[in-house]
Each structure stands twice: as C-alpha cells, then as structure tokens.
Amino acid sequence: MKIIGIAGGTGSGKTTVVKKIVEALPPHYVAVVPVDSYYNDTTHMTEEERRAINFDHPDAFDWPLLVQHVKQLRQGESVEQPTYSYIKSNREKETVHVDPKPVVIIEGIMALINTELREMMDLKIFVDTDSDERLIRNIQRDCVERGRTVEMVIDRYQKVLKPMHEQFIEPTKKFADLIIPLGGDNKTGIHILKTYIEGIVTNI
C-alpha cells in the first residue's frame, strides 16, 4: 500500500484534484481519507462553544484517531470513518466504511502538518492556488453549502482563514514532494498523479 498526502489552503482545489484522480481510475485503486472528517468530537460542548471553534487550527483535529485509522488501513483492516457536520459543528452518528486499497489518499488543509502522519506518506503534495481565487471559492462554497452570507465569509477569511493559512498551512509546503498550482484546473498535474497511481497498482 502507498499513502499519498494532499494538502493546500481552503479553496485551493485539492478536493477537486482528488475527485478527478479517483474518477479517472478504477474504483478498487484508491481509498480517500479526508482530514475534514476527523474534527474533534464536540458532544461535550455547548452550542456556543462549538460555534467558537477555529476549524483552521491544528488543535481542531482528532489526530490520534486519524493516525490510528491510517495504520489500520495500511495493515489491511477496514475502518469506520467519522462524518462531520459544519452546520452542527459536531460529528454525525453515521460513519463511512472505508476498505483498504492499493493507494490511500489523505486529503485536507492540514494533511502535511502532523509529523507521525507525514512520516507514513510515500508521496506528499501541496495544491497551491492564488489567495484571491481561494477567497472567491470560499464565498461560493460557504454561501451555498454552509448557509453563510458573503459578509460572514469575508470576515472569517480576514480574521481566521488568512492568518491560520499563513501560520500553519503555507509552511507545510516545504514538506511537499510535488506542488500542483491551480488545483483542479491543472490537467497535467492530475495526469501525472493518475499515472503514478496506475504504476503503483500495476506493480503490486
């Protein structure tokens, strides 16, 4: 099994990159583990406390559980991946069953920040997209999917997303073996990754 980590800022297009890779390959090739599914369980918190969570800080994630699940997949064991609701700011009761496959992609803004997780990766990728483009994508996504207004998204971007990106996410670029500019629009980068994965599965 090979493990690929794909990181990048919010709205960089990393999820689109992963989606296009998965769609271009047979279903038994790749399992995807989104870091976003591993936000901490906040059942013990009040609603007000949940609303105050900084989702762009490393402390917001349940790293022990994510590391444990990746190790289980690497050992050939299936896992029950949590699901997270941004509306409730908490985990859902439902889980997603993930079977081990020749390639596991760990995708998320913080995919390269945890040392133990990073050391398990065979390939580390950073999706690099202009900050203005990422802001536009955040506005489009959050207004439609998360019920926020444009003003709310811009305010959050200025107070949280931008400083957290500069402090925690951008520095992980130095760990990347490969940088893909333009996210999902980078057809060459996606093709290179697809070919790399095909080579892995063919040689197993």
Question: Can you give a write-up of this model?
Answer:
There is one protein chain. By secondary structure, the protein is an alpha/beta fold. Helix content is 41%, strand content 21%. It contains 7 helices and 7 strands. The strands form 2 sheets. It has a 5-stranded parallel sheet, sandwiched between helices. A hairpin with a 4-residue loop joins strand 3 and strand 4. Helix 5 crosses helix 6. 34% of the residues are buried.
The share of residues in helices is: 40-55%
Strand order of the largest sheet: 2-5-1-6-7
Instruction: Give the oligomeric state.
Output: single chain
Secondary-structure class: alpha/beta
Residue-averaged pLDDT, rounded? 90
- SSE succession: EHEHHEEEHEHHEH
Total DSSP helices: 7
Care to count the β-strands?
A: 7
Which helices and strands occur, and which strands form pairs?
Blueprint: E1 2-8, H1 14-23, E2 30-34, H2 47-51, H3 63-74, E3 79-85, E4 90-98, E5 103-107, H4 115-119, E6 123-128, H5 131-145, H6 150-169, E7 178-181, H7 187-202
Parallel strand pairs: 1-5, 1-6, 2-5, 6-7
Antiparallel strand pairs: 3-4
